[in-house]
Design a protein that fits this description.
four-stranded antiparallel sheet, alpha+beta, about 190 residues
Amino acid sequence: MFPIPRAVFLTTGTGVHRNQLTAFELALRDADIEQQNLVSVSSILPPGCALIERDVGVSTLSPGEITFCVLARVETAESGRLLHASIGLARPTDPAMYGYISELHGFGLTGAASGEQAEDLAASMLASTLGIEFDPDAAWDERRRIYAMSDLIVDSLSITAEAQGHPDGLWTCAIAAAVFRFELPA
């Protein structure tokens, strides 16, 4: 059986270059995860998985390591186009219960709107799993209030990379990632 991650950290980055792949590489460098062999996984935050600071998580990475993450990635070569990549995270009050991580990426949303939507996605997935009744069409602020009153969700948050397509049409890339670690940092 594969080990279960014990910690996760969030990071973002942006990059601009005439080559699409290099723009992605520069975004990874900005996020400080360029030396990893990244493997994208889906949206479950393991039970008891600690949220650690980015600098603490980065300090545990080794070049060439196979590193599991939830990754949001978006690229454009269209001048002026607004792009966003967000990770949302929702953790239950009960540390024996799993949480959710959402990824959201696309065009036209501000960083704040993208982050709010990613957080809403993660919290709504967790709330439905926990059996919290809510109106999915209600505004996010109303659902957040219901989730808080349930005492079943300890918190939700998001992180976002926002960029605008380079004026000269160079490739612009934005990424956000939840990076898993199998050991708790010392």
